[in-house]
Amino acid sequence: MAHAPDPINKSADWVARSLRSVWHPCTQMQHHESVPLVPVSHGRGVWLYDHDGKRYLDAISSWWVNLFGHANPRINAALKDQLDKLEHAMLAGFTHEPVIELSEQLSSLTGNVLGHAFYASDGASAVEIALKMSFHAWRNAGRGGKQEFVCLKGSYHGETIGALAVTDVALFKDAYGPLLRAARVVASPDARGAREGETAQDVARRAAADVEALFAERADQIAAIIIEPLVQCATGMAMHDPLYLALVRSLCDRYQVHLILDEIAVGCGRTGTFFACEQANIWPDFLCLSKGISGGYLPLSLVLTRDEIYQAFYSTDVTRGFLHSHSYTGNPLACRAALATLAIFRDDDVLNRNQARAGRLRQALAPLARHERVRHFRQRGMIFAFDAIEPDATRAATFSRRFFTTALEHELLLRPIGGTVYLMPPYVLSDEEIDGLAERTRRVFDSVISS
Ligand SMILES: Cc1ncc(COP(=O)(O)O)c(C=O)c1O
User: Could you tell me if 310 and 149 are in contact, meaning their C-beta atoms sit under 8 angstroms apart?
Assistant: First the structure.
């Protein structure tokens, strides 16, 4: 269906009304005095449209959630069908087809190693669940002294109090420091940290040695280590070698510490495999999923766990159970969107076809990779990133905002993280859109770096 520009409610009107009434996330609202707010009227495929008919290629999948484009006909059809059956029912004491089928299919994607799924809505809630479950499982096993959590330098796991405690991004965390329970922070395996002559695997070994030193000293107090596998996204797409995950898995086994993998951003094929941890041939004790699992349609998050963990809570004693809940836990519409998403993965051979897509995008981005003001061009699956060389501190501080604004003028939605420009597009880019995305990104970069 064609959408004509809306003649009455122009973009400017919506912006004014939004600024009067909506408090936007992750935003210093004062910045909107100079940074544009984009009112979205509708979406189609990789494009978002405003009320004046201007369009923007959603090159970061709307905060990394969208997988198969906006208004995807297959996900839409599944949701319309589900709407006429059941919009929601509580999941305590009741169950329903979409949540059962989704749990079965996800477990099967882990080779049934992770046999049970516990549901919530946002990513941060899944992290809270994994942290609480880990502590409680140890407590049920008579090891209530295991109360500490370990996270990586630069880690990001969400904004709620528990998730923020295992986040290591000062900008988000410092203001709330007094409210947070301190976590132990270990070295990041970020391959950019390679010293002269070192490979990414050497960095991974060094970072794993840091974990081992901590475990050797305090494993009796540590419940779990939480890791975002292969790519630490929010800190600036810091990528590491899969060897790190294999080494930490074996340390967790040796020292009896749970391994929580946060695949909220990197799961669902972003890194090339459905789960990032498959590239290290390991499974965690807890795996957190959200964002892409509903195709970017509805808030849905979940924690997959091993059966041993599930069994640790199974008892005649109610207090040994996991009594956590959210009202919309396992919402049927969200689960149905997820089932439609998994069906597209299967029917369209998405992971294989993404290899060709990623190959073409990598080639199209080659001029940027060679650019004299670019360093650390990197890629993992469908995630591409590079760091801008901006020697002037004042200009470096405003690089991200200037890039975002200039990108909008080039029909692109791109929001660098500090000096890191990254692309994490939906998996439905045509060849023409791939080439256009790369070309426009280069033009935006040239313009921002030289203005
Ligand atoms: C790795 C990771 N974990 C957790 C979260 C939190 O998810 P949500 O924003 O849905 O609470 C995010 C969000 O960006 C994330 O990237």
Answer: no
